[in-house]
Amino acid sequence: MLTDQQLSDCAAELLAARTAVRTLRPVSHRYPGVTLDEAYEIDARVHRLRLAQGAVALGRKIGLTNTSAWRKLGVEAPVWSSIYGHSVIHWTDTRGRLSLAPFLAPRIEPEVVVHFREAPDVSQGEEGVLAAIDWIASGYEIVQSNYDSKDTVVADTVANSVFHGCLVVGPQVAVSALSDGLAEDLKHFSLLLSRDGVAVEKGEGRQVLGSPLQSILALARVLAAQSRPPIAAGEIVTTGTITTAYPVEAGQTWHSQIDGLDLTGLSIEFTA
Questions:
Q1: Torsion, CA 164, CA 242, CA 238, CA 228, rounded to 10
Q2: Could you tell me which CATH class the domain 57-271 is placed in?
Q3: How far apart are alpha carbons 262 and 210 in whole angstroms?
Q4: Which of 85, 96, 197, 263 would bridge 56 by S-S if both were Cys, CB 3.0 to 4.6 A apart?
């Protein structure tokens, strides 16, 4: 069991490594047996440090939404962390550039991003979630790891803010402008991810815990089990990657093409 001082030290060191864009040893290498609960406490302390430094919390990210990996990883639910004003980039166009300078070992994850007009009534299932959303967008999460080893466990991921680097949010589309069958569309739409004009992988909405809406319901259950604040009005939630997370490099251009959902894909050019 980590002491209070060890938890605080881990949080301070992880935040410092993020700020300096440098690596450090995984938490599990320093403290074998670190638990998922302890990892969430480390991330909560990172969150408080960020807020004290002036960061503004905008919402949550959901990770580990591919259930096929859960047994191997020893988890029974997705994981989550906070996202902030400095880590969320809003685009009004479907094309843009992003510098990779702030990130270590960056990877790209195409995701569906939603914004809540009001707190969702999760007791009403997908209908309650959808009724509380005012806009939806396609996006890319850039994940990164500050660890100097790939030999990590889920607790390491959570302690390092679920590897959140930044979130690029494409043009916002009002839910009222989308089809009446949006809940079904979110289950069955497909996304083709390409790099420099070459197709890399095709994914579907159902690969995100069955649907991005189901991903949000899973997050709500995790938050309740942890006695953490529930999803609130004004929050942005990025719902989980639709494809594998792929490594990216400066000079590459990645593009997402969406079919079966009235969202436009995004083209992102990475620079040094």
A1: -80
A2: alpha beta
A3: 19
A4: 85
pLDDT at residue 72 in the model: 83
Instruction: Return the percentage of the chain with pLDDT > 70, whole number.
Output: 100
Residue with tokens 């309740």: 224
d(CA 138, CA 205) in angstroms, rounded, equals 12
Q: How far is it, in rounded angstroms, from Cα 107 to Cα 163? A: 10
- Reading the block at residue 87, the tokens are 């880590």
What is the pLDDT at residue 71? 86
DSSP secondary structure letters along 190-212: EEEEEETTEEEEEEEGGGTTTSH
Instruction: Report the distance separating Cα 224 and Cα 220, nearest Å.
Output: 6
Pairing of strands 236-238, 57-63: parallel
Cβ neighbours of residue 272 closer than 8 Å, sequence gap 6 or more: 99, 100, 101, 250
Answer for the pair 240, 215: CB distance below 8 angstroms, yes or no.
yes
